[in-house]
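Researcher: Final request for today, and then I'll write up notes for the group meeting. The sequence and the SMILES for adenosine-5'-diphosphate follow.
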Amino acid sequence: MAMKKFINDPANLTKELLEGLALCYKGKVKLVGEKIVVRATPKDEGKVAIVTLGGAGHEPALSGFVGEGMLDASVVGDIFAAPGAPKLLEALRMFKREAGIVLVTLNHAGDRMSASKALRDAQKEGIKVCEIVTHEDISAGIDIDPEEKRGLAGCIPLYKVIGAAAEAGKTLEEVVEIGERFNRQMATLAVAMTGCTHPQNGGTIAVLPDDEMEIGMGQHGEAGGGRSKILTADETASRMIAPLMQATGVKAGDTALLIINGVGATTLMEMLVVYRKAAQLLAEKGINVTPGACGEYLTVQEMAGFQMILCKLDADHQEYLKARARTPYWTA
Amino acid sequence: MAMKKFINDPANLTKELLEGLALCYKGKVKLVGEKIVVRATPKDEGKVAIVTLGGAGHEPALSGFVGEGMLDASVVGDIFAAPGAPKLLEALRMFKREAGIVLVTLNHAGDRMSASKALRDAQKEGIKVCEIVTHEDISAGIDIDPEEKRGLAGCIPLYKVIGAAAEAGKTLEEVVEIGERFNRQMATLAVAMTGCTHPQNGGTIAVLPDDEMEIGMGQHGEAGGGRSKILTADETASRMIAPLMQATGVKAGDTALLIINGVGATTLMEMLVVYRKAAQLLAEKGINVTPGACGEYLTVQEMAGFQMILCKLDADHQEYLKARARTPYWTA
Amino acid sequence: MMLTLQRFKEMIAAAGEAIRAGEKRFSELDAAAGGDGDHGTAIVTAFQAMAKAGGADFKGYLKALSEALQNEACGSTSTLYGSWLQGMSDTAPEGAAELDAAALAKVFNGGLEELGFVTRARVGDKTLMDALIPATEALLAAQSQGVAAMFERAAAAAEQGAEATCAMRARFGRAKNLGDRSIGPRDAGAASMACIFAAFAATVKASC
Amino acid sequence: MMLTLQRFKEMIAAAGEAIRAGEKRFSELDAAAGGDGDHGTAIVTAFQAMAKAGGADFKGYLKALSEALQNEACGSTSTLYGSWLQGMSDTAPEGAAELDAAALAKVFNGGLEELGFVTRARVGDKTLMDALIPATEALLAAQSQGVAAMFERAAAAAEQGAEATCAMRARFGRAKNLGDRSIGPRDAGAASMACIFAAFAATVKASC
Ligand SMILES: Nc1ncnc2c1ncn2[C@@H]1O[C@H](COP(=O)(O)OP(=O)(O)O)[C@@H](O)[C@H]1O
Ligand SMILES: Nc1ncnc2c1ncn2[C@@H]1O[C@H](COP(=O)(O)OP(=O)(O)O)[C@@H](O)[C@H]1O
Ligand SMILES: [Mg+2]
Ligand SMILES: [Mg+2]
Ligand SMILES: [Mg+2]
Ligand SMILES: [Mg+2]
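Model: Predicted protein-adenosine-5'-diphosphate complex:
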């Protein structure tokens, strides 16, 4: 698999893509230093700040969701690599406030290690910060230790919900409670069709035979659950929605949010066809499906595949999802 | 190139993807029959309606831009195939009104033929409708006969501008004047890195050698301008922005809109890096670059490549671009 | 010999089968000349839609073919064929279920004329017109030799015209921006048009 | 023999060169075991960042290495190595520009202990710990034989530990969801750790 990408010196890739983001969406976000993306117009100091961290190479995630109603800051590492603890600490210092900070960490070894180190140091300095760890990937199993479950694109609706709660003036404890409740009620499953190339070294990640797909592929192309021959869109949707319903516990009469997150080369055409079947299956079970989303939110370079995210929504979550948001890649 | 796509029976593909769109964005759009996408809440009858037509397989275009502030209807054909004239006539009848209709046609043989036939019949029936034809692709040359230039993704900011003008209560003549003025001041250039597969027959479109790229590739994978060895992002941006500036006539002191439209497998990471360089080059020439957009708006299946769109903006265009819009894939 | 409506319906069916057999080749030719690789799909879909049409006379059947095509199929191909058939219907005599050589010539001439309003492409532009124009001319020129000869000459002219497109540079349709690189393969639309005329001729000949 | 700070700086430089030479292999190992194929990039970047560190004593130099790593580099590797070096700095004697065997053992032991707080991985989990834990143990056990022997034993133990990871199933890092399919290739992080200890040993030996 030859790499064909529009880049310059791979060593400058993360810096340049963030500069591009800040230029393109200058009314919404700006860069502090090279690797911290913040809102162009900061949120009122009296409100809880929302900060997250993670590697680049997954655009628009995570920095594309900085802006009014969602994230206050995204601390970026390098391609597929968590930022170091000192960088994260720098961001936490920047948002130090009476109201406190919520730090959202996706459950990946590198991110967790940086977050723990930075949190320890921040708390020593008297910075009020609580962590929410996302681990909604059910590919390794539904009832296993949450520490063993990865965080996938489910972080994005979570940012939306807690971002809106913070804008609404909720306290740190309230925002964390709303977020953890949302966190417990969401689940993600990924499927991959093709591999991709690492933009900095050109190496191939996760090769799959021409006639196979894999359910459970992680967001850096790490292999996961079961391989099978290629299934139709409807079969794929059916096989994925069943365990997601089980994991979220959604049942007749409940309201749910369904999101199809394309990871790279899979077309929106396909995502819409998959959404259709999954939404129909939910409706057949008496579940009220709110307006959803199909698109690329957290990608894995040019890999073909997608993540299906199902969230069981409480009444307050529904309101927070609808609340105003103005970020480069999510608007409400 | 093996086709790996999540689809069902290829014959139902367009129908199913539009059903998915209507389900996912149910507050914004709905389907009439199988192939006409309209706003969930129709616009006031007293205002000019905006209708467009085109093949599917380019999602989110064109139907993803139906909604408040942009299109009233998108008439869809099949994958890469224009809808027939009778289908388009049906939509024009649906939006028949005193205020009139603007029909936006992208300059492709099939679309143009259906549009001419439908327009002839509509006018016979007393439907007040004016056509705007887009043909902003400069890959075949800047000063050639506009009839020889294809319409690429530049239709999307055009929908935004005339959609806002229509919402603002402008007359049919005014909307057409605003749109044609915008049309004349925009230009698009495409570049492709890899081919793609046709989702209905699995055939490969536009194969490119592993180390080559092609500037001027059309939106169905049709080959175009010059092939070259793969260039860096910065070199690619420089080579593209120069003819675009020439074609739009943008100069120091002017305001311009820059959009990078990914056509499939090219990552947003790359688009942002390209945007950065192009925006820097414009700024160096004293051009005021408004907030822009990087993302997938009009795609060509899983092809790697992008279209760069440059629009010289008059004062009213700037206001119309900022005006409220609520469509599945464009919000302001 | 007169051409009966029944026979003409058989000709359409035979053309549909020949087209289905060549589907893959037509798509490959479309892609090879720099098009979007879907002409096989498009022309097969067109014949599927046409298969649903019925009619008690030439005028009605041709009109039904044209409408089925434009209502159910999509793309340039359905619009081009739709106009062709519309033009034929417009020039067909009212109520006739049989056509003699002169009437047949008039019908095919009417089809080509209507198509000429829809597209600016002519001989040399590497489109289906390169097969259809000489085919129609040959058909007209052979009037005095009867229906079977008319289709035989038309098929030969269509084949020759399609073959000639190999050396041409595309100027219409999605392949036009390819320039010189479009030289080499046969134009997909001309190839399918030649295939249709070949099926017409074979069906008429078999029934003589 | 004492280990001078100068010699230790040479060891770090030698390790950096060895790592650069193995960059491609480390990335391939990462991908082969189901990881994201970037360990070569990560560890090379880490050594590039470390190359900028300076210091007048072991404590300061180790601290500077740790900070350079965490400030400039990204990813698990920089956090893991950052903690390792931080732990070494914390246990290094104040102001010392030379270390005897006992002090050296204490420093490497302190590095491993601090790392143990950051990750739950231990021997058998198919990570760099499979090389580092036995290497540190061998280094400690060889104290009485002097500095050169300590690094020689450590390098051998690291190599053996890295080799043993081939038969293991990944439980940490991005390869963990691969399950049985992660068996076969050496763990990328263990391989690079073994490469570093080999460079340390060769540098010390060359200077004896
Ligand atoms: N404007 C035109 N005039 C005449 N023939 C055309 C025109 N455009 C396309 N064609 C014919 O149609 C063929 C391609 O058909 P098809 O692939 O079905 O349509 P599309 O170009 O919409 O993908 C071409 O090979 C050519 O013969
Ligand atoms: N939690 C962990 N504990 C110990 N070692 C780890 C851990 N996570 C990863 N590693 C080591 O790091 C190596 C991968 O490094 P690298 O590819 O640079 O990081 P990433 O996993 O962030 O892509 C693995 O081969 C393993 O040796
Ligand atoms: Mg994509
Ligand atoms: Mg894409
Ligand atoms: Mg075609
Ligand atoms: Mg890795």
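Model: Chains B and D do not touch (no CB pair under 8 Å). DSSP finds eight helices and 15 strands in chain B.
Researcher: Thanks, that's everything.
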